[in-house]
Amino acid sequence: METFYEVMRRQGITRRSFLKYCALTTTSLGLGPAFMPRIAHAMETKPRTPVLWLHGLECTCCSESFIRSAHPLVKDVVLSMISLDYDDTLMAAAGHQAEAILEEVMAKYKGNYILAVEGNPPLNQDGMSCIIGGRPFVEQLKRVSKDAKAIISWGSCASWGCVQAARPNPTQATPVHKVITDKPIIKVPGCPPIAEVMTGVITYMLTFDRIPELDRQGRPKMFYSQRIHDKCYRRPHFDAGQFVESFDDEGARRGYCLYKVGCKGPTTYNACSTVRWNGGTSFPIQAGHGCIGCSEEGFWDKGSFYDRLTDVHGFGIEANADQIGGAMAGVVGAAAAAHAAASVLKRVADKRAADQNQTVA
Amino acid sequence: MAIEITASKPAAAPQATAATAARPRSVYVYEAPVRIWHWVNMLAILVLCVTGYFIGKPLPTQPGEASANYLMGTLRFVHFTAAYVFAIGLLGRIYWALVGNAFSRELFYLPVFTRSFWQEVVAMLKWYALISREGHTGAGHNPLARIAMFGMFLFGSLFMVFTGFALYGEGEQAGSWADRLFGWVVPLFGQPQDVHTWHRLGMWYLVAFIVFHIYASIREDIMGRETVISTMVNGYRSPKE
Ligand code: HEM
Ligand code: SF4
Ligand code: SF4
User: Fold this and answer.
1) Which among A268, A281, A302 is the best mutation to test ligand 3's pocket, defined by most ligand atoms within 8 Å of the CB?
2) Distance between CA B129 and CA B112 in Å, rounded?
3) CB < 8 Å to A216, chain B
4) CATH number of B27-58+70-236
5) pLDDT of the residue at A309
6) Where in chain A is the domain with CATH 3.40.50.700?
7) Residue A137's CB: how many other CB atoms inside 10 A?
8) Residue A320's pLDDT band (cuts 50, 70, 90)
9) ipTM of the prediction
10) Banded model confidence at residue B20, pLDDT cuts 50, 70, 90
């Protein structure tokens, strides 16, 4: 079997570029310089692990993000490792030819390939809302995942459900981990996830031949262990209590904290405030807009992106905590007041009755 | 007989003379630790509600350099300090339920399997529905108060501690003791934003309890047959003449 290195050389990548790539990968994974030769060695000696990339119900923003990885080198290398196998959006082959490749890889590398899933399967209407090669996507997903070593859930769609699973979710779009329960699943949420995060995760898995350390919710710790808020450069304004009150005010011009205009940075785990976007150019908060929490579960269903206090759904209610709670406390207060008044009236009436009884007696 | 006194420890109450034994007498209900806890806890909750409210809906922007202000930082610091007082107080109160008198345990369980409990519930409902003219007697809580204490106060408080420390663990970050102990709460609610929402709803739940609690205590103190408010100050439940 070919090693990673051999594949890369075959793709026309020079040894110099290969070593640069190893150095880049080492840094982006936050590893020390000593790891660089280890990565190079691994790539030179390990047989290439194939990656099969399936697309379910999605918008392809994960692929779009992925192919825009900051360093062209990373993109070329990683892409050359992946597009070799199966990716129905990026690969050259199509139709029966493409499906044949899928079967071939699955048979040849049984139990040894990585399955990357972009999007998710809809379960209603017998899965008919997403058809791949004439069959419901959920069937393909189950079939391919059966012999996979591990599964990567790309983006918020595969990880949580995202927009197609937003209320009322007519197609019952369902995240991968709720359909496939017997394989290790690495969630890489975001809408889309950051390119460097995606390449970082996949490179780590290919080079070290193991899944990265995951947090409680199955996200790689190296990119998802801190909130946007924890590393936000506007945090001093948050602590000081200096807020943008509306997007055209003085505070907005001064770059104050966006908390009051609905920033979800305090409740969102992602790497935007450290890695940033488009090759480290910027990220939403730097551009003056709050985080919308795109890498968190159900972020479409939490009311307005511009409200700090988001909505509660259920029992036909759609209101925020203060509206519901304030009403509850108000009702108790009003009931107490009414009860107090009734008690006084009753007591006065009782007293009058007693007085009358006495005079009668 | 109307009065059933069930204190487990010999009450250090001023004993009524043998001749008047049939008459109601004062009972030592709330031991000192319970009383101290009650008032410390009240202060902690007050501070938690006020600071918590403004954490979610901050005050108007502070002018000047960022380094000259620390308003949110202070609010959060005070919230977390009061939170520790609140949580440790609750732990202390649980300890006291184990070693204190029988009344100290009333907060922590409802005798739902005893007939008399439900008979008293009906009696109390009549009393509050203004049908019956005789209020609850007996040294501890009346059964309705117990249901409110257990279902609203105790449940509400534990809810606030669990959701609160789960949020605290996020600030302290993965691997911190708060994250290890309470981090599992977050996925239970969905995502951090949901925990914030529920933590805030929890505050209103406690506020509703407090409104009810204060009203019922004052009403009972005025219209009932025994002391209520002074009991939480001096510990004695006394008949009113
Ligand atoms: C009576 C009990 C409590 C009340 C009424 C209360 C109230 C509140 C409220 C209203 C908020 C704002 C929620 C939002 O809009 O996002 C809040 C936030 C918070 N509370 Fe509490 N809380 C209580 C107990 C606790 C406890 C025991 C802890 C544990 C440390 C705690 C930790 C926090 C944290 C970490 C936040 C988030 C702060 C931030 O977003 O920066 N709370 N609390
Ligand atoms: S802008 Fe958002 S992430 Fe940044 S400090 Fe303010 S609330 Fe936190
Ligand atoms: S800043 Fe927030 S909303 Fe924007 S990409 Fe990052 S996680 Fe998603």
Assistant:
1) A268
2) 22
3) 183-184, 186-187
4) 1.20.950.20
5) 85
6) 47-223
7) 24
8) confident
9) 0.88
10) very low
Could you give the C-alpha distances from B65 to A236, A239, A241, B75, in angstroms and in order?
A: 10, 12, 11, 18
**A294: amino acid identity, one letter:** C
Per-residue pLDDT, B2: 38
Q: How confident is the model at residue B129 (pLDDT cuts 50, 70, 90)?
A: confident
Both tokens assigned to B50: 């006020």
**B5: its two tokens:** 């006194």
CB neighbour class for A68 (10 Å; exposed up to 12, middle 13-18, buried from 19)? middle
Beta-carbon contacts of A178 under 8 Å, excluding residues fewer than 6 positions away, are none
Identify the band that residue A8 occupies on the pLDDT scale cut at 50, 70 and 90. confident
Coil, helix or strand at residue A104: helix
- Atom index in ligand 1 nearest the CA of residue B56 equals 15
Residue keyed to tokens 């509050």: B128
Q: What is the pTM of this model?
A: 0.89
Interface touch B66/A242, C-beta < 8 Å: yes
Helix (H) or strand (E) holding A114: strand A113-118
Q: Hey, what are B233's tokens?
A: 């100050």
For B20, phi then psi, to 5°, come to -105, 25
- Angle among Cα A354, A356, A357 to the nearest 5 degrees reads 65
Q: Which CATH number fits domain A47-223: 3.40.50.2300, 3.40.50.700, 3.30.830.10, 3.40.50.300?
A: 3.40.50.700
Domain boundaries, chain B: 27-58+70-236
**What is the pLDDT averaged over residues A186-196?**
95
d(CA A155, CA A282): 20
Per-residue model confidence as pLDDT tens digits over A131-177: 988 899 999 999 999 999 999 999 999 999 999 999 899 999 999 99
Is the confidence at residue A82, as pLDDT, over 70?
no
**Three-state SS across B50-67?**
HHHHHHHCCCCCCCCCHH
Q: Which residues of chain A form CATH 4.10.480.10?
A: 225-358
* A312 neighbourhood in chain B, CB within 8 Å: 197, 201
> Tell me: domain A225-358, CATH 4.10.480.10, correct?
yes
Task: From chain A, pick out residues whose CB is under 8 angstroms from the CB of B75.
Answer: 241
For A238-253, what is each residue's pLDDT tens digit? 999 999 999 999 999 9
Q: How far is the CA of A24 from the centre of ligand 2 (A)?
A: 30
- Could you tell me how far CA A261 lies from the centroid of its own chain? 22
